[in-house]
Amino acid sequence: MIYINGTSGFIAGNFLKVIPNHSITPVGRRLKNHKLNEFDIFIQMASPSDKYDFEKTEETIISMLDDVYHNIDLVKKAKATFIFASSEAIYEDNNRYGAFKIAIMRYLKHTGVKYINLIIPRVYGVDRPKGLMKQIKDGIPEKDLNKIIKFIDIKEFCEILKKEIYPRPEKLYQDITFNTSYTMTIKQIKEFYKL
Question: In 3-state terms, what secondary structure has residue 114?
Answer without folding.
Answer: strand
